[in-house]
Every structure is written in C-alpha cells, then in structure tokens.
Write a structure and sequence with these properties.
385 residues; alpha/beta; six-stranded mixed β-sheet; 6 strands; binds iron/sulfur cluster
Amino acid sequence: MELPVKRPDHIVPSYSLTGDLLSYLRCGLQYRFHNGSALPPSRPVQQWFGEFLHGTLELSFRFWQENSARYPFPWPATQKEWAGGVPDWKPHDIGQFADRIENALRHQGKQARSRDARDSAFRRVTIAINQLGPHLFPLIEAAEKKVIGTRPIPTGNIPLRCFSYEVHGVIDVLTHIKLDRVATDNLISESVRSACLSLAGPYEVIVDYKGSQRPLINDSEGYWNHGIWQLQTYAWLRSKQPDALPVAAGILIYVNELTPGGKEMMTLKAGIKNKQTDILPVPGSQDEQIVRMWRLGNSTDQLSLDFRLRRAIRVIPITPESTLEALKKFDDVVRQSEEDIVAEAQNGNILGTWKPNGDEATCDACDFRWFCPSSNVGAQKISAP
Ligand code: SF4
C-alpha cells in the first residue's frame, strides 16, 4: 500500500491587533523582547493603566446596566435626585469598582508604576464614568466583543514560514441602532451624526477606550493613523460575524483628555501652534484664554466639560475604501514582522534585526532601555543579550 507523503506543517501565526500589531508599530525591538522567542505568540505589552481603565469602565457599565431600568437616561443632574440613593456615583463609590480591578491586576503581578500614576488613574476613571458615562452607557449594545479573522500575507522576495495570518481583537464597546433612541443632546450621537452625514438605516458604531491623550494629526510616531487602522480593522472583523449590522463609524475615546495634565496641555499648545490638532477651544471663550495662558504646573480644572469631551471623542467614519487601506497597512506590518523572524533565525542577532523605534515616552517606560542601541536612557548601558 502506498502511504501518502506527510504534508509540511501549515503555520498560521496569530496576531492580536493591539498586543501584537500596534505593539510592533510602537517599537519593533520592544515587541520582540516582550514576545520572548522567534515565534510571535500573542502577549500584549502589559500596561497597567490601560487594563485598569478598561476593567473599571466595564464593571461600572455592568452595574449601571443592571440598574438602568430604574434610572433611565438622561440621568438626573445631581446625586440628590437619584431616587433611593443608589447607584451613588461619588468618587468613593466608583473607587469600589476600581479597587476590585486593581486587586485583580495585582494578582496578575500588574501594578501602577508609582503612587502618582495610581492617583491619576483613579481620578481619570472617575471622570470618565461620571462625565462620559451619561453619554456613552445608554448607547452600549455589547461590551468586550471578541472578533477574529484570517488574512493572506502579501507576497515578497523573502520566503516566509506562512502564507496567511490570524488577526484577533476585543472591541471595547459596540453600539447599534440605539443611537437613534437616545437624547438629542447626547454628545456621542451628535458627534457620529456630524462626522457621517449620509447615515441611514440601522448601523453600528465601534468604540475603543484609549488611556492616552489625543494625538497630533499625522504625528511622527504614527499614533494618529494607528487609531484609524485599528478601528477600520475592527469594522472588517465585525462585518464577518453573522449578527453584524453595517458599521458606520468608530470612536476613539482619549480618556486623558477628560482631565488633561501637563503632557496633554503641552501637546495641545504645540498642536494649536503648528496647526496639528483638530479640536480647538472656541475663539474668545474662557477655554481659549486658559489654554493660551497655561504654564507647567497650572490647573486645568476650569476647562469646560464640553471642550474636554470634544477633545476626548474622535469619530472615524468607516467606508469600504478606508477599511481596505487599513487592512493593507496591517498586512504589511505582519509581512515585516515575519521577515524579521526569518532574519533573526538566519543571523541569530536580535538587536541587529528588530527595529528599535520607540518614541521618548515608550523608551522611558521600557524595561530594555538599559541595553537598547537606540535609547538615550542611562549613562552606563549593560551588555546586550
Ligand atoms: S528603549 Fe525604546 S527603542 Fe529601545 S526597545 Fe525600548 S522602546 Fe524600543
């Protein structure tokens, strides 16, 4: 009897949209070190604030959802108006959600980098829940929606170990036709309508929380575009699911803009000066004066809620053309990553293969800065592995 020849193993590497593709774009070398071997398993770069933010927002949404029949939107303007006194969304009570998430993260070995970072995270999540929550929570259809798909890897001169790859992710929040049913002054609904003028019929909107500031338009680090590619790819992955409606838009929520600190204000002022930011204070307003007069160490508490929310919310219209473009960008990222894997296997040299392209903030927080050839951190660097 003739036995069939065993076919070679067919490898389909798995890439997480945020943990792999965006991490690779943030810094190729850091991504390589975090992944620990020449084969890239999906392991997100551990960022405490991002996980703390996502977890606390989800927990508070679940709590609100269970109680929202008794407290329909729009929420009362003051805490006093809550019949029966629950839920009581004072900072201390929101702290109970936050404590649970913080404990869960601690058990996974993840902690804030400093007391200041922890305090700032608690303050930011409190404002996100109390000031963004009334606009966002009533729109949510599903939270933490998993999406997955496969794509071919573009062809090139270097033979790779695979021809296709799996891409997966978790959509923070999915809304659908509920957008039509919310209060007319709902800021998120308004933002979507003004960015997507031809909206018609039932549709969905994908929301992603970012534990960061609003990037400058076409910033040199690429964060402005990475956000676009991420949401467009989510939209494509979502469109493959049987219960999907057309995705009209994606929304990025830059939580740091809800309570801007020194870094956010410096970026805003630079953006205004260089015409690289799209959300400006209204001319002649108090916000404009505060921004103009702001110096390091000044408070930003007097900035209006409307301005802070507008800075925090970024709507990205989804179209077939823009989705195709984003998919191509990520396909190219996978091609490059796979070529790096081949190169490292051939030359056995990590530092000479993977690109050390972290920006200043990424390098400052990077565990590998002491021996990275690109980092300026540390006068005495240690030997490379
Ligand atoms: S120090 Fe900077 S460039 Fe070097 S690996 Fe870390 S993030 Fe990348």
